[in-house]
Amino acid sequence: MSASELNPGDVVYAATDLFNDGSIPGLEEGTLLAAAGARGVLLKVGHLEEEPDRTLYLVRFEDAGLNLGPPVGCWEEEIRSEAPQAVEADATQ
Question: pTM surpassing 0.90?
Fold first, then answer.
């Protein structure tokens, strides 16, 4: 499923580490908002007035304690609808 098929309430995953760009009040710029692979829930889908041709996804990601963090605006390339693949340990070591 591509990000364009997502609806509010769907589970998504961070495709990369996501950091505060300064737009989230109360958090320092550069604060890690979601590590790559973090699970989140999609809240809204919309567009910025300045970029009407790009879809913006509002997501709340879980932290290590499974608590939802603040809403984070994400571009399509920053989220995935599929869970990341688990890395298997090399059994020959």
Answer: no
For the chain, give the mean pLDDT. 88
Which secondary structure element, helix H or strand E, spans residue 44, and what is its range?
Answer: strand 39-48
Domain ranges of the chain: 3-80
11, 31, 53, 65 from 50: Cα distances, Å: 27, 25, 9, 36
Q: Which residues pair with 62 in a beta bridge?
A: 68
CATH number given to 3-80: 2.30.30
Q: How many Cα neighbours within 13 Å face the side chain of 44?
A: 8
C-alpha–C-alpha distance, residues 34 and 46, integer Å: 20
Strand partners, 39: 13
